[in-house]
Structures are given as structure tokens and as C-alpha cells.
Amino acid sequence: MEPALRNILVVSSGFLLLFTAYGGLQNLQSSLHSEAGLGVATLGTLYGGVLLSSTCLPPLLIRKLGCKWTMAVSMCGYVAFSLGNFHASWYTLVPTSILLGLGAAPLWSAQSTYLTVLGNTHAERAGKLGKDVVNQYFGIFFLVFQSSGVWGNLISSLVFGQTPTAESLPEEQLASCGASDCLMATASSNSTQQPSQRLIYTLLGIYTGSGVLAVLLLAVFLEPIEDAAQSGGGEKPPPVWSTLLSTFRLFRDKRLCLLSLLPLYSGLQQGFLSGEYTRSYVTCALGIQSVGYVMICFSATNALCSLLYGKISQFTGRAALYVLGRRPRGPALGLGAPPPRPPAWPSAPVPRSPPVNDLVIPKGAQTRPGPGGP
């Protein structure tokens, strides 16, 4: 096997193991730690740390440690977050979520830099076009990485599936699910059955072990590379304040300002998905063991569309895909408006069909012509 391909598979497998653990654990935060909004606050703190670290931390760590060890060290923050869930409290989850957030931006920056440098180096040696090789390497990476959502959620559902559940949920609980769930209520009527501590510790042990394997895989088997910008040619690295200012100078470009609205909207969508949807729509109505199965559908569709839209973009361009990705989300959120279970209609007192004029049509219902027409 070529060294370049081997390194790509090592990076891809490491991220697969790491985000198998983190992705599944992220989707369960608001369900496992719903008291006083601890799970949602943890996710908010986590991505606040990502925002802060993105300003200046990635270039400093990559220049100091190199891409390989930046990825390995940053992954340790994810492992610490898994360990913090063993004793979930404000004093364990908030600090570990900050640690994870500070490591997330350097992790992804180092991964992108590593694959880009590796692709350009291989293209130069093979006499190929650099961008073609880099795109190929990123395609291999995301093909492996996107499957992490399937495996992580499958593990959580298989483990929590051992929780004994009642045959049917009471109507009082279903009435407070979905769009009717109010996190600001003083008395929570949305009291779903929590899995046993043994099952929680089993799942956290699997996730922590997966994260440790990811760190060891990169530390032992990944070959380090040196970029020309990393070596610096003996030049003195710029100060921290200069790196910070250069980040904000990018907003002078109006194209970047317009593009920044897309990740802002995507962040709102991801926050709703991992913080509210999993708890209020899935855990409340179906049970926590169903969160993984529901999110598997999302992850599998996401991976399939990543491959499909990459091909379509060659013919439609990126702007059309931006519009296409925005339109289905409004109606999708509106699907949460109806109650989780439709009301039971009263049975007719007479076995024969009543006259048409005696039928009572519920307010707001839509009538359709029968098979024979109107």
C-alpha cells in the first residue's frame, strides 16, 4: 500500500473512532442530563469553546506541534468529555466541554492541512494536478468519517435497548412532547424513564475506549509531515495578537460576510437537532433507546447526500444546492406541530352510514373527493 493512502486511512479511521463516540454522546446529552438544562448548557458551552479557539489557536498549535501531534492532543479533549459524563454535574461537564471545544478547531484545521499537504506532495511526485488529488483524498476521508454517525448511534440504541419499557406511554406524557414541551416549566411533566446506571456506564465505557483507540492510532501509525509554512524557513512566528487580528480582517471581504450566514443558520439547525429534537420529539415520545435509531436515518441520509450532491454540483453549481438545502428545513420543523398521537374519533352510534348533511367535519380538516369524483 502506498504511504499516502495508508496515512489517509489512518486519519480517517482515527476520526471514525473518535466521532463514533462523540456523535452518539452528543445526541444523548439533552436526554441524559435534562435536569436544569445541564445537557443543553453543556453543548452551548462546548461550541462556545470552539468559537474562541477558532480565532487564533489552530495556527499556533500546528506551527508548534505539527499536524500529527495537534490532532492527537486535540483528541484528548474528546476523551476527557466522555470521562466527564461518568459523574455528570456542572463541575465535570462544563470544564470538559470547554476543553473539548478548545481542541475541536485545532483538530479540524490540522486534519485539513494534513490532507492538503499530503495531496499536493503526492501530486507533485506523480505529475498530477494538485487539486484533483486533494479532492480525492478528502472524498476518501469523508466517506469513512460520515459513517461514524451510524455506528455511534447504533451502539447507543443497542445498549439502551436493554432497558425495560412500558407497553405504552401515558397520554399525559405524550401531551407534553414535541412542540408542547416547555423547558421553562417549573414542574416537568415530561418525565421519561432513564436507563440504569449500569447501562449508562457501559455505553460511556465503550465511547471512552473508542476515543482512546483513536488517539493511539494516530500517535503510533500516522507519519508526520512538514509543511513549508510550518517550518517557516527560520523566520520568527508572528505574535498572537497579529494572528487574532488577521482572522477578523478576513471579514473585509464581502463574500465571506455573506457566506458566514450559512454556518450561522447551520449552527441553529444542529443545535435544535442535537439539543431539542432528540429530547422532546424522540426520547419523550419513543424512549431514549430510540434516539440512536432515529439519528442513524439522519446520518445515513447525510452521508448519501454528501456523495450525491458532490456529483450534482458539477452540473448545477453551488448556489443551487445552497437554495435546495435551505428550503426543506422550514416544512420539516413544522412537522412537529401536530400532537404525537392523533385523537381517537368517536364511533358512529348507528351502523348505517349517515346522510351527507349530518356529517360533522372537524374544523380545519381538508375534504377530498371520493374515488368517483366530487
Word description of this protein:
The protein has one domain: Growth Hormone, Chain: A (Up-down Bundle). α1 packs across α2 and α2 crosses α3. The C terminus is likely disordered. The protein is mainly alpha-helical. InterPro entries: Ion_channel_UNC-93 (IPR010291), MFS_trans_sf (IPR036259), UNC-93_regulatory (IPR051951). Its main location: membrane. It is found in: Membrane. Belongs to the unc-93 family.
DSSP strand tally: 0
Radius of gyration: 25 Å
Low-confidence stretches: 186-191, 336-374
Number of helices: 14
Average pLDDT figure: 77
Task: Provide a compact summary of the structure.
The chain has 374 residues and is an all-alpha fold.
What is the topology?
Layout (H helix, E strand, L loop, with lengths): L2 H30 L5 H47 L5 H37 L3 H16 L2 H13 L10 H4 L22 H25 L6 H4 L8 H10 L4 H6 L1 H26 L4 H26 L1 H9 L2 H6 L40
Subcellular location: Membrane
Keywords: Membrane, Transmembrane, Transmembrane helix
Protein name: Protein unc-93 homolog A
List keywords for this structure.
single chain; 374 residues; mainly alpha; Growth Hormone, Chain: A; globular; disordered C terminus; Ion_channel_UNC-93; transmembrane; MFS_trans_sf
